[in-house]
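Minutes, methods subgroup
Present: GH (chair), OT, SY

1. OT presented the first of two proteins processed in the latest run. Sequence and structure tokens recorded below as shown on screen.
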Amino acid sequence: MEDHDTGARAPEVGVSRASPPAPAGPSAGRHDRHAGPGGRHADHQGDAQKGKTRKRRKRRRGRKVFARDDNQAASAPAASSAPASRSPEAAPLPAASARPPQAAPRSPDASRPQGTPRPHQELPVFAALDLGTNNCRLLVAVPQRHGQFRVIDAFSRIVRLGEGLTASGRLGQAAMDRAVEALKVCGDKLRNRKIRKARLIATEACRSAENGVEFLDRVEREAGLKLEIIDRQTEARLAVSGCGSLVERDTQGVVLFDIGGGSSEIALIDLTGHRSPRLANHIVSWTSLPVGVVSLAERFGGRTVTRETFAAMVEDVAVRLRSFDGRDRLAHVLASPKFHLLGTSGTVTTLAGVHLDLERYDRRRVDGLWMDRDSVDRMVEKLVGWDFQQRVANPCIGADRADLVLAGCAILEAIRAVWPSERLRVADRGLREGILSELMADDGVWRNEGRGRQ
């Protein structure tokens, strides 16, 4: 099962056709769909070897990501009562010795003609993996110009790791099996490259499950990957870091939210003062609600959702938001036209796809899209009015999301009620992009970019 993330196949990341292209560098803005994954086909008049070389380059080229967050990692916005991370520091990818014996991957140099330049010869490779309650996602990238990186490989699959977790408190066997199989694919991709630094994270499902740590031990044994369980505070900060380039220079305030499968992170960002290159420095308040599309749908039902059921889901989330003490920290900018919401999740990207009436989901058109208040109202009303089969039939929802999308809409409606805004910006990006930006900045890859890094 594949999710909306089209991985290495997606063309332009950070530039939506619905909004003007963002400039490069610290003032840029991005939701994925990076610069094209390949160039033109080899010239038919060229020799066969030349054609092979160009095809190889086509496979390795990825998407260009625009990321503004280029300074050293900032301190966390607030103290967290969440569990400590399983492994606090990014480290080189663990050796594959934990995996069963297998044939060594073929070196990319083995078939490269002598004298042909190595692609990305001097560029270090970084990787980010996010194992969530619903999805398993991987990005592999190399740094480009200041504050930017190019994705050279990607993977995304819906695994529903948190299926049944709300009722049992434990990860189910079938769910763990699905996740392990997806992680084996990720492990193979990573071991076929020379990775300078990788950060491999697990979020709410592993964080809250009684057997979460036990499951990650299994992942290490069978997939050869050592994942860390991050706390909610770190998750909120990474979501902000990943979406920083979608916040324009004249913005005064943003409520950024990431509606996940098992939790929803919300960060209030005040930009009325001097602006730092790192958006996470401007977080003035944040919260993590222990409710996401999977957990909410399991409690209220996701297939048959009446208007009364939908209203009950909205109220359930609203009660949680009313206990958030920092919710008024942006009261001074809520009425400003330079305040907006910024959503990064399958919920908002699905709404955007339905809004655009896409015949198939297209990240290039969705990422960075602006939706006004009336458009969001209409799309939520449309989805609430559809039955399960109508949701399944929509190409931007499909069978994998049909029982979850209304739970996501309920969370969105509760957020909009607390922070009303005339505009919502849609981001098809998040934790992985935040991880990559922070890894590269911490490694210093952009410190001397003025000397000619391309």
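2. SY then presented the second protein from the same run.
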Amino acid sequence: MIGHGNAAGYIDMDKIIDSHPLHVELDQLQAQITLLNGQAQNAPVPQTDAQRQAQAQMEEQLAAADQLFQQEMTQRRMYYGQREAAAIAALQAHTTGQATPIGQQLGAQAQKIQQDALKAYGDYQKQLFTADGQHLQAVARQLQQETGLKLAARRAQLERQETDYQIQLARQSQTQRLNLKTQLEDLNISQDQRQQAESQLANIETREEALINSLKARDNADLKSYQESLQRDAATRYNAARVSMMNDTNDKLKARQKQMNDQLRTQLAGLGTQYQQQVANANAQLEKDPKTRAELDKIHAENQAQYSAEFTKALAAYQQTRKQLVAKYSAIGHMQFIDDAALADEAQQLSAQRRDLYSKIIDQVQAQVGEVARERGVAIVFSSIRGAGHAVDLTDQVIKAIAALPSPSPESSQSSDTNSVPSSTPSLEPSGSRS
């Protein structure tokens, strides 16, 4: 602390603060903070399953209430921010003589650029998908044709083998069959001989038919197995073609999307530069008009005031909801639950009040130290008695000077109760530009 003169002085800052008229209130705030912290730390612990369940349900509904409150305030902040931005844009357009608000025409251009790019990408995607479908159809037809040709070749081969086998059997029984037929043509054989010859001839026919049918059954099973093998091979080749085609199509789409994004980035960057230039020109023009600047301040103040009023009302309702939930589940659990979040908020508010009050006390002390130092011709004042040496002790005189000050008004600082709201409502930030 610097004063006037050549002497040096010192003060006992702790002693001065302890004797300050507002120190009692400072201690009261600290006592309230300590009490709140103690309540949070010494909260009753649920002992029964019913109490633990009640606490869990309470915390769940408290979290839901907090989320709802935050969502509502975010929506209201966005609403007032957008409304303020629209009002400012309209005022800028009116002041600068533009037919439309700044950025609206460029915004429409940007939207059209994006729509055109997306349409072109969509058309390209459709072309690729159409070509892919046609390609897969061609692959399927080719595989079907190849499968049919191979199956027909195998069927013809088996049929030739069956015919050859039938001829072989006929040749093997040709002599016996001829002899039996010759016997049957003889009219002089007995009836028993005729029946025996006919039976032998029928047995030959039956045996050959059974052998041929057995071969055909084996051939049919072989043909079916071969057909299934051809179909599996065709399905494998079809899937391989489909996967290869899909990978190729995806690579093409990724390349086209990157190209589209690069073009959009370049085009939109150019529009952004134009927008910033328009805003800068409008702001420069508005800065020259005090009336317009006052109107801008009025727009902001009105929106901020309305948002602050809604925030305060919503906060009070939110805090009341939390109190009701705590009371409800305290009754259900037959024990007094604690709202840790409410206690923490209240302790934080009291801490902020105590910091403000302490800063006010320090400011008053420093002002009185300066006055006393000037009166005593002290050039420099140390705020600690350590190493003061031959410096003059100004502590008592500063205490007397502070005691002679007018008594602090009741509004100088107020303690907060459980229903208090934050000392400052969150600021409303418009989403648009402002000159």
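Chair's summary of item 2: The chain has nine helices and three strands.
Next meeting: continue with the remaining queue.
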